[in-house]
Amino acid sequence: MADVAGKERRIVVTVDESEESRHALSWCLENVISSNSKDTLLLLYVQPPRAVYTAMDGSGYLFSADIMATMEKYSNDVAQSVIEKAKRMCQDVKVETRVEHGDARDVICQMVEKLNADMLVMGSHGYGLIKRAFLGSVSNHCAQNVKCPVLIVKKPKSPSDASN
Amino acid sequence: MADVAGKERRIVVTVDESEESRHALSWCLENVISSNSKDTLLLLYVQPPRAVYTAMDGSGYLFSADIMATMEKYSNDVAQSVIEKAKRMCQDVKVETRVEHGDARDVICQMVEKLNADMLVMGSHGYGLIKRAFLGSVSNHCAQNVKCPVLIVKKPKSPSDASN
């Protein structure tokens, strides 16, 4: 059994607006990061691809450049807010942050490789069939395609579960 | 950031004959279990369901009771061998072992719940399309269906990766 304190691990944690994501980060901080470790947490927020907005602008009238800029600003504000909240949770641990655009599945896999991560931690949006069918596939896709170990953390359903 | 040393976690690690499984256990020991923790590792080996042998015995001639007993003994020997090898890897950590019969996907999910596990660690057999299509689904299924966090560990492809 090795002593994790001596290693410098790079752990990517995906963050988003959801409670599941917050829980995954919290679980990771409590269970994976030891208090005297040299780990670096890389908080990764993936914005939807800009192309989504462009595609909605099919008519050429609905979305002016102003509206596009407003939506872009809103999207960036959300990203910053999520990143800031996540950073505040990470006391006494080295943190880097990244905001990227694109399809979450592709971007996460690419960034894990690019950042030379030792581990990927993700929340799982596991409630509701539609939600699971769509969002579940992000963690499935990443678990199958990234080379490093992947930790998928589910948010307990009830408050009593949360205390475990 | 909590200190993991004080918590008593129950971590289920699935083990089988594969190199991937050995790597997953090794990674878990090095990266998840801290040297002064009170964690208990629950090594779980799932044997194929006995029904598989019975189903092969369609003719009533091919497999006598003797052959069935021999196959059963062989299967148990493999299970014991895997469990013993896995136990030898776990120095200075509390270990419990379980051997169960059935479909790995169902059994793992059931046992994680029954054993009240805080985390499930699995190897991923990720090489080759056929193998992935079949074996990959075990980790996918478990990641989607168990309530606790799931760590999927891949074996690095090349020796140079293994040193990371």
On the 0 to 100 scale, the average pLDDT of chain A is 81
Would you tell me the structural class of the helices and strands of chain A?
alpha/beta
Number of domains of chain A: 1
**How are the strands of the biggest sheet of chain A laid out side by side?**
3-2-1-4-5
CATH architecture assignment name of chain A: 3-Layer(aba) Sandwich
What is the tally of helical segments of chain A? 6
What can you tell me about this protein's structure?
The structure is a homodimer of 164-residue chains. Chain A has 164 residues and is of the alpha/beta class. Chain A has one domain (10-153): HUPs (Rossmann fold, 3-Layer(aba) Sandwich), CATH 3.40.50.620. In chain A, 46% of the residues lie in helices and 20% in strands. Chain A has helices spanning 19-31, 51-56, 65-89, 104-114, 129-145, 159-162; strands at 10-14, 40-47, 94-101, 119-124, 150-154. The first copy, chain A, has a five-stranded parallel β-sheet, with helices on both faces. The longest helix of chain A has 25 residues, at 65-89. The radius of gyration of chain A is 17 Å and the shape is globular. Residues 1-5 and 160-164 of chain A have low confidence and may be disordered. The interface between A and B is large, with 41 and 41 residues.
Supply database-style keywords.
homodimer, 6 helices, UspA (chains A, B), five-stranded parallel β-sheet, Rossmann-like_a/b/a_fold (chains A, B), disordered N terminus, disordered C terminus, Universal_stress_UspA (chains A, B), USP-like protein isoform 1 (chains A, B), alpha/beta, globular, 164 residues, Rossmann fold
